[in-house]
Amino acid sequence: MLTDHLPRISLAHLPTPLEPLPRLSAALGGPQLWIKRDDQTGLATGGNKARKLEFLVAEALAQGATTLITAGAPQSNHARQTAAAAAKCGLRAVLVLGGGPPTQQRHGGNVLLDRLLGAELRWAEGRDRAEVMAEVAKEEQAAGRRPYIVPYGGSNPVGASGYVAALEELAAQLAERSLRMDHVIFATSSGGTQAGLCVAAKALHFAARIVGISVDKEAKALQATLAALARDTAAHLGLELHFAPDEFFVHDEYCGAGYGIVSKMERAAIRLLAETEGVLLDPVYTGRALAGLIDLIGQGAFDEEEMVCFWHTGGTPGLFAYGDALLE
Ligand SMILES: Cc1ncc(COP(=O)(O)O)c(C=O)c1O
């Protein structure tokens, strides 16, 4: 295993299921759709951050940390899973959350879970969240505690290692069932998921095309971030691999509505998967990613017989903060 030599603790329920989506595939007229259920990683309702936190929290504990500090949007799934990881490891958690409308989004969904998990919340309002995290770190030190800052989205080489291991997990599941995948598609934002998957794909000569549907970033900027993060992640693992920005497949044509804005296409995608397969997506990331995949299918981007894995990266608590927008 590519990550065997790295410090890691167990936080996630692994391996996550790999399941066919026959009714969705039929409804869309092919390709052969499968789903990798990282919404089932556990750690306070699942999601992709559980895999990253196995490596990040191991580093925090090795450094003697007593407090995990991280930041995100009001409905951050990353912040919620960081709070759960802290609780499980007996650490304090301080979450710096960005401003947002003082509505459901500041009380329900992930924010409710953050509170139940015992995290301290700091609302950054219009302030720079990195600055507020640095301030919190100073306060923790002054109080005699040892802070560890978990980077935004858990996306540094340590966190991205979680998705290096995840692709190895998928490759093993495919080998076991004598299956192949032609495409792996998922929501991408801070880049740790995509960078980790691409490092492992290159190291293992995994043939599928790894495709991120950007929820908020322009493709060019995200490709540059991915190339740097993949290079640093490979170096962290002791692998000599090189990456150029144009090796990363990113679709940014579905993020025009803006981060966290639910429009018709997300609503339709969420409904379609729920009604055909009984699987729930989230309004911000996976709803948009499946909407992108459905659009690409409509454009004829895949042959009917091609195998496409939609990687569900979690986020379902967000549904409960977006009830009105989802039922419009
Ligand atoms: C549910 C969900 N999916 C996808 C992502 C994007 O993952 P990454 O930040 O690794 O690109 C996030 C990140 O916050 C998320 O919460």
Indicate the topology.
Layout: E1 18-20, H1 22-28, E2 32-37, H2 49-62, E3 67-72, H3 77-89, E4 92-98, H4 109-116, E5 120-125, H5 129-142, E6 147-149, H6 157-176, E7 183-188, H7 192-204, E8 209-214, H8 219-237, E9 249-251, H9 264-277, H10 286-298, E10 307-312, H11 323-326
Parallel strand pairs: 2-10, 3-4, 3-6, 4-5, 7-8, 7-10, 8-9
Antiparallel strand pairs: 1-2
The structure holds pyridoxal-5'-phosphate.
Pyridoxal-5'-phosphate (PLP) binds next to helix 3, strand 7 and helix 7.
Task: Write a structural description.
- There is one protein chain.
- By secondary structure, this protein is an alpha/beta fold.
- The protein has two domains: 18-47 and 155-326, Rossmann fold, CATH 3.40.50.1100; 49-154, Rossmann fold, CATH 3.40.50.1100.
- It is 42% helix and 16% strand.
- It contains eleven helices and ten strands.
- It has helices at residues 22-28, 49-62, 77-89, 109-116, 129-142, 157-176, 192-204, 219-237, 264-277, 286-298, 323-326, and strands at 18-20, 32-37, 67-72, 92-98, 120-125, 147-149, 183-188, 209-214, 249-251, 307-312.
- The chain has a six-stranded mixed β-sheet with strand order 1-2-10-7-8-9, sandwiched between helices. The chain has a four-stranded parallel β-sheet with strand order 5-4-3-6, sandwiched between helices.
- Strand 8, helix 8 and strand 9 (249-251) form a beta-alpha-beta unit.
- Helix 6 (157-176) packs across helix 7 (192-204) and helix 7 packs across helix 8 (219-237).
- The longest helix is centred in the middle third of the chain and has 20 residues, at 157-176.
- The N and C termini lie far apart (46 Å).
- The relative contact order is 0.17.
- The mean pLDDT is 96.
- Pyridoxal-5'-phosphate binds at residues 47-48, 77-78, 153, 155, 187-194, 282, 285-286, 313-315.
- Pyridoxal-5'-phosphate is lined by residues 47-48, 77-78, 153, 155, 187-194, 282, 285-286, 313-315.
